[in-house]
Amino acid sequence: MSQNTLTITDNRTGKSYEIPIKNGTIRALDLRQIKLDENDFGMMTYDPAFTNTASCTSKITFIDGDRGILMYRGYPIEELAEKSTYLETAYLILHGELPTRAQLDDWTWHITHHTFIHESIKKFLDGFHYDAHPMGMLISTVAALSTFYKDAKDIFNADSRRKQTYRLIGKMPTLSAFAYRHSLGMPLVYPDNDLSYTGNFLNMLFKTTEVKYKPNPTLEHALDVLFILHADHEQNCSANAMRSVGSSHVDPYCATAAATAALYGPLHGGANEEVLHMLREIGSVKNVPEYIKHVKAKEKLLMGFGHRVYKNYDPRAKIIKRIAYEVFEVMGRNPLIDIALECERIALEDDYFVSHKLYPNVDFYSGLIYEAMGFPISMFTVLFAIPRTAGWIAQWQELLLDAEQKISRPRQVYLGYDKRSYIPIDHR
Ligand code: ACO
User: Fold this and answer.
1) Is the pLDDT of residue 1 over 70?
2) Among 198, 248, 261, 418, which residue's Cβ finds the most Cβ atoms within 10 Å?
3) What CATH number should be reported for the domain holding residue 279?
4) Coil, helix or strand for 154?
5) Rounded Cα distance, 16 and 135, in Å
6) Is residue 217 part of a domain?
7) Ligand 1 pocket test: which of 301, 354, 363 has the largest number of ligand atoms within 8 Å of its C-beta?
């Protein structure tokens, strides 16, 4: 008998089956041969929320959640955060290799020259209420881009995919900044091609009367590092949305809008907003133990803690914590950091958090930096969506080029009524 197999005995029938094992997994479809009789549909697996199901093979991002390791295309996140730039990392994630100097120049040129958006998008933004959430505006305007670029439907054409990639990575900061300026009632600031990716984003957000906006180099660098840390995270909720929606062969703008919507939720990218709300609610260091009591009684969540995959300190949170102090040097210390540090100190010593393997995740400290940099809370998830776009596109492209993939369509276990007859309304 082959070593790389799993033998399953069905105690209902006494029959045994030998199922091949590849890459530590068995194929769910191989279970379908396990039947009670010829009329039986066959065995399925039940895995709500995909807690133990691989939906794809991937070569993009590796996470070892127990050891706190994150790598893009084999490069550790710590090295990329220290030595790379966001655009170089985005290239790596999308192409699989670090670019040569010429490739990086070409890539940067193309992204920089796709930052402008159609003037009609401004009319959509005008339709939003002054206090519309920027994520709502971003989701809608990314989807709207689909109506401007008919060539985007040509998803199996590599040139078309490349073009939409330039556009999406180039335009996400512009859409985001325009949404922000709209919410303030401020005139929109157009992209400045002399600036870096993050420098230009800061320009579009914060420029007022100066003729030429000069981004603060510390803030520009801090944002670039944050963008590297957020660029991809394998099969998380939004990447799964991108792949699932993309599997219908819709254009990448609509798929990216779906991924952005998934990111908006408070259990995913929306958590960084919730962390700030929570720290404000706690109010002072002395109130932390009381708050932790409520968390342990399961009345509240400690937002920014816990992760489906990391059962150790999230490596991104470590880097963000360090960058926070660099930002505080320039912008002043965010007083909420002391409350956050106290939450972390108590949690890391507490048996509840230790036994549940709950550690700070990427969102725990990112909001504190964003706030210190002058971003309103409502922009935090937007600051996640912009860099994650590179990861989403890489995941989408990998899906399209994977011959094993098909339209995403899970099964269900139906537990509802058997067939019954319609009852006229007067007889109910
Ligand atoms: N505070 C308190 N208890 C928690 C927390 C938390 N933040 N997170 C998980 N737990 C507890 C749960 O109550 C559960 O306890 P039990 O086993 O005694 O019932 C146990 O830990 C396992 O939690 P699950 O929710 O089953 O774990 P899951 O993998 O489904 O959820 C999630 C992961 C959603 C991230 C969760 O930890 C959470 O809600 N955290 C707070 C929100 C947050 O920070 N989200 C950002 C995640 S990072 C990202 O998406 C970018």
Assistant:
1) no
2) 198
3) 1.10.580.10
4) coil
5) 52
6) yes
7) 301
